[in-house]
Amino acid sequence: MHESFPTIERDIHKEIAEKIATAKEHPLDIEKEADIIQRYADLVHESYISDIETPELRELEARIKLAMAQVATISEFKILMESAGVFTKTVLDTLAHENAHANIADQHPDTHLTHGYGLVYLKDGEDISVQPVHISEKVKGSNTIEFFDHAIAVLEAPALYENKLSDDDTREIEVLKEMKESVIASK
């Protein structure tokens, strides 16, 4: 009976290694694809208000997902980072940071669907790096103001756990606050 655990673990490691290999083959080129990354962010922000996912958004999302090794659980995320060669201290800090985002997102199922964690592979010249992410999206038809409030709370979550906010988190918080104010002003 206990022999199944090593098989399951081996399968998980194999599946994660395959995800890493695929993402490594298709990294986002920061220089050549900066416009794609920015356009994707713009369309995601637009979809928060409109609740419409355009074909362009889905196409850009597919490109980004090709560069991402994605897993469903925090334990798989740990294996993913270790398998990708992320340093142990960084792994522990990143687990705490991304899990904080997930914990708060999971408290708001009325506005957030959580899809797990990922490492997005980025290419900068000859250098390859990874960007860890917590993956969630807005529930279609949810209240936009509540979504912004919850999304800001999700982004601020690491600070609740005495973990530092990333520069990306800080920038996104400001963008969402401005978007929320714009929606309120338009009513």
Write the topology of this structure.
Layout lengths: L3 H22 L2 E2 L4 H17 L4 H12 L1 E4 L2 H10 L4 H19 L5 E13 L2 E12 L5 H17 L6 H19 L2
Parallel strand pairs: 1-3
Antiparallel strand pairs: 2-3, 3-4
Tally of separate helices: 7
Radius of gyration: 17 Å
Shape: globular
In total, the number of domains comes to: 1
Strand content: 15-25%
Poorly predicted residue ranges: none
- Which structural class is indicated by helix and strand composition? alpha+beta
SSE succession: HEHHEHHEEHH
Major beta sheet summary = 4 strands, mixed
Number of E-state strands: 4
Could you tell me how far the N terminus lies from the C terminus, measured between alpha carbons in angstroms? 62 Å
Characterise this structure.
The structure is a single chain. By secondary structure, this protein is α+β, with helices and mostly antiparallel strands. The protein has one domain (4-185). 62% of the residues lie in helices and 17% in strands. The chain has helices at residues 4-25, 34-50, 55-66, 74-83, 88-106, 144-160, 167-185; strands spanning 28-29, 68-71, 112-124, 127-138. Strands 1, 2, 3 and 4 form a 4-stranded mixed β-sheet that branches. A hairpin with a 2-residue loop joins strand 3 and strand 4 (127-138). Helix 1 (4-25) crosses helix 4. The longest helix is centred in the first third of the chain and has 22 residues, at 4-25. The radius of gyration is 17 Å and the shape is globular. The model has no long low-confidence stretch (mean pLDDT 93).
